[in-house]
Amino acid sequence: AEADGAAKAVLIVGAGRNFIAGADIREFGKTPQPPSLPEACLKIENCTKPVVAAIHGAALGGGLEVALSAHYRIASPTAKLGLPEVALGLLPGSGGTQRAPRLIGVKPALELMLSGRHAGAKEALSLGLVDRLGNDADALAEGLAYAQELIAAKAPVR
Fold it and tell me: Is 65 an active-site residue?
């Protein structure tokens, strides 16, 4: 998308029931396959075109870190967002420890990271984790509409 001159924005949306439900713990201890999640998140964050994450279902752990890397986030009303790595004895490892506090402040970010709890879509909006709530469960359509709105407004990357 970065190299495609016709692309004016990028939309990230998950297939199936979730945006990205987090790491597959069955892969722990195996040789990582490139690109690494930190590399992918950095590429998203550094994209020169607006990147929108359309969140539905779960955006947990690395999934939320992908969403935090996007410039704009829209969530379906039933979305759940969280950084539950603490339940595995870990902290977010793909930029969540930096991006979450910058976005929502240190205290609420630490509370999410250290409790491992999930925030619902309305709470995520009030915290500033997402920019907008969608109206229904069609994350793709709402994400596209939001991206088109941002393009029309000449919204910057942020």
Answer: yes
> In this predicted model, what pLDDT tens digit does every residue of 118-158 receive, in sequence order?
999 999 999 999 999 999 779 999 999 999 999 999 999 99
Token pair recorded at residue 138: 């069609």
57 phi, psi to nearest 5 deg = 65, -135
Report how many domains make up the chain: 1
Smallest CA-to-CA distance from 53 within 39, 38, 41 is with 41
Q: What is the pLDDT of residue 32?
A: 84
Which residue in 45, 65, 111, 142 is the catalytic one?
Answer: 65
Structural domain includes residue 3: no
| 85 among known catalytic residues | yes
Torsion of CA 120, 143, 54, 18, to 10 degrees: 90
Task: Give me the domain span that covers residue 125.
Answer: 10-152
- The whole-angstrom separation of Cα 51 and Cα 11 is 6
Q: Kindly report the CATH number assigned to the domain that includes residue 134.
A: 3.90.226.10
**Structural domain includes residue 4:** no
Question: Of 85, 111, 142, 149, which is the active-site residue?
Answer: 85
The H or E element that residue 151 is part of is helix 139-152
Q: Tell whether 157 is covered by a domain.
A: no
In a domain, 120, yes or no: yes
